[in-house]
Amino acid sequence: MAKWCRLDENLTNDRFDCFSCRRNMCDKLLVFIYLILDCLCTPIMCLPPFIKIGAIFTEDQKNSSTEHAFVYAVDKINRDEHLLPHSKLVYDIQFVPTDDSFHASKKACFQVQHGVQAIFGPTDPILGAHIHSICDALDIPHIEARLDLDEESRELSVNLYPAQSLLNRAYQDVMSYLNWTKVAIIYEQDYGLMKLRELIRAPGRRDVELHLRQAEPATYRDVLKEIKSKEIHNLLIDTKPENMHLFLRGILQLQMNDFKFHYLFTSFDIETFDLEDFKYNFVNMTAFRIIDTEDVGVREIFKDMARFQPDGSSSPSNHSLLSLIKAEPALVYDSVHVFAVGLQTLEQSHPLKLENISCSEERPWDAGLSLVNYVNSVETKGLSGPIEFKEGKRTQFKLDLLKLKQHSLVKVGEWSPAGGVNISDNAAFFDSGTMNVTLIVITILDTPFVMMHYGKNYTGNARFYGFCVDLLNIIAQHVGFDYILDLVPDRKYGAQDPVTGEWNGIVYQLIKHKADLAVGSMTINYARESVIDFTKPFMNLGISILFKVPTEKESKLFTFMHPFGRETWALVSVALIVVSVSLMLVARVSPYECPKPRPPLLRPGVEPETQPRRPPRLWPPLSRRLTLSNCVWFIFGVLLRQGSGVSPQATSTRIVGGIWWFFTLIIISSYTANLAAFLTVERMITPIENAEGLAAQTDISYGTLDSGSTMTFFRDSMIETYKKMWRFMENKKPSVFVPTYEEGIKRVLEGNYAFLMESTMLDYAVQRNCNLTQIGGLLDSKGYGIATPMGSPWRDKISLAILELQEKGEIQILYDKWWKNSADTCTRTEKGKESKASALGVDNIGGVFVVLLCGLAVAVMVAIFEFYYNSKAISKSESRTMATPQQSLCAEMAGELCFALRCRGSRQRPALKRQCSKCVPTGSSTTYMPALPAGLEPPHLQPHDIRQRRNCSIGHGYDPRDEGPPIPPPPPPSQRIRLTAAGRD
């Protein structure tokens, strides 16, 4: 029995402890009886009465909470009547120096030689790998509770420590939730970089800027000082728990203990740290906890563990409850419990056969693999939460997310491999309602968003007023912070230099964390969003073109010509001529339009001289024949909807006339409709209609605000029109970029300049100056937002406040206040919205009167020419037949003019006072002739007499066409008419 309790008395510091050796003689006798029963028991029916297990811990864990938890777990299992009722666990604990793998291997072989069925520990990652190699060679189960950096599965190992790949996922999920984009990772141990390698190269976090620094207690301050100088406010800390107080002291010394900084610890024991100096400075400290201390059963186990003594007494020990509620003791306790559950499952299937195993023989244990498989299939709940394994690695667990608040660390969420991060208290990460925080807010003067009082009575935030200032006041009340408002030094919003990559303006100030917020008409775009954060947009807008109101189109006298273009008028004129000629030719060809004379009627047997005369076919008068002049007159009259006195008679000529009537119907109707549109709609002279028109010309300059989002939009645009506009603006000298909106509006009012600006500012300018107008629509769509540094905790709070204000309509009220309800709003008359049409003035239709006057003038000139031509012809004719002196042409024209202007007196034309002896008898002033149809003369007059009378009475020369058919016999006296020297009465 002495050999069973202490196997080797000569080994220094080596002991085999068992409960049977520490209890009284009765207990030893009971152990002896169990050994006898073990020999008599059949191997198929039960487990051995004593199952030997070994534990290897480092020397710094001697008399620690880890050793205490292991001993307590064995004792609790042996006292449990249901878990292993017929077997007892007998343990052996060996201590080895840290990082001494040789002694650790020697201790493991010693325990194997003395028949242990499983080895627990060590918790050191390096020593644990060496112990596992021995267990793997001998097929002895290796139950671990340590950090395992090897991603490959181990056949003979069961590790209760959560897989590092899953922990890295948990850290990554928290960083994503907190929107960390610039992180410093501080690790202490050499394998710390290997531990977090998956986090560093995570594919989903390529946008995160990571800074890796290895530190130890002597270099904590230097590393923290470097991180502070780089303005990194998010830190992932992976240091030894025993050195954590030194690290926290460095934070206090460098004054990195305010709300700007956020620390995420990889340790599960944040509750054991002294965080008293950080509670009231609103420092953001976050960590995971694997032990659910809020569970009543878990707390009872820890209380019982704190009272436990290995000798069996229940007096209080030197292990406080706080020292026991750590991840390592809890995982060690759970490892022993899982092994016991695995043994229980194995007992129900087949027995556990014991064999003598030695490291020197390297002969594997046949039952070891079966035992490991049963342990690996255990699903239970321990101090560290739900436990489940896959290929020896723990895949099922739950982590509580803790956050430091004013009073203590509180649970604000959970993480699990299946569900990821689940935040139950979103406000816990930045509880601004209990803070008295003053933020630095920068802005830029931009009417009406931010304006400034320059009087001496205005100081501090009272200097500023405007839309964004009112919005900031409301948001500050909702979120709960004070602020100091100031102007950005370079008075620019911020743009990135394409050569150096450096930012300026507001963006630079936020990147360098020289300000907490930026308020103003700052546009959200991709380039800015990649280096800073924006809240939800509080106003939507787009880029548009500001231009000076074009002058009204000057009314022209010939506006009535505008309904048709020059080509249409030319075609109408050509059509008039072509149709006139065509009508004349068709009339000449058609036998029904111009009939031929009838032949004489001959009777048989009668002399020709005595044949009766056939009545002659009457010819239409010359004024009604379709000659060229009459065809032109007919076509022109039809075109103007007037009669001409000439009408076609044949079918062919009537078809030509009908087609022309249809043509004129369409032309006149179209002209009338289009003329109404031209005369009633006032058109403006607009050199440009949209961005394409602006890009297509070079006479009008155009530009944007310097170093603004509009400039960036054109510079980075891939649309060909906008690329062309950017090349023009970039190469234009002098520069078309302006430093402020006011300067751009001023250049627009000076003329010949278009300003590309954001629609909100354009709307404000147009509302207050009637000489300005918007050209075209919006070129893009974007929004204004409040800018914050990357990862700022204020962003989400302000975004929620903006959404609430938008739903309540308060932002729209502010917009109406600063845009529409101002006293200096311009009042303009919208064209085309009157209730009735405008009257047409002389300037619209005055050209018609000009055409009328010109036509009258042409008619007078033609009449003068006709009179001149006819008088000249008569003068030549009379000069051959008359010897009397004639009047001069000017005298005759003067007489005709006096006759035309005379209202009373003689109605005889002065030009007909000439004597004609051949046509007027001497002493008689009247002559009677029959009243015949036009073109016929009295039959008793000879042809030469008729021609003379026509020449005298009408004033024409001889025309051969006047020779007509034979003259009929004279009519009776009743049909005669009296002729006077002035013509027919």
Automatic annotation (TrEMBL):
InterPro entries listed in its UniProt record: ANF_lig-bd_rcpt, Glu/Gly-bd, Iono_Glu_rcpt_met, Ionotropic_Glu_rcpt, Iontro_rcpt_C, Peripla_BP_I
Main location: membrane
Domain Ionotropic glutamate receptor L-glutamate and glycine-binding: residue ranges: 448-512
Cysteine pairs bridged by disulfides in the record: 770-826
UniProt entry keywords in alphabetical sequence: Cell membrane, Disulfide bond, Glycoprotein, Ion channel, Ion transport, Ligand-gated ion channel, Membrane, Postsynaptic cell membrane, Receptor, Signal, Synapse, Transmembrane, Transmembrane helix, Transport
Binding site for L-glutamate: 523, 528, 709-710, 758
Ionotropic glutamate receptor C-terminal domain boundaries: 438-821
Protein origin, superkingdom: Eukaryota
Gene Ontology CC entries for this record: postsynaptic membrane
Region: Disordered, residue numbers: 951-985
Similarity comment: Belongs to the glutamate-gated ion channel (TC 1.A.10.1) family.
UniProt protein name: Glutamate receptor ionotropic, kainate 2-like
Biological source species: Bemisia tabaci
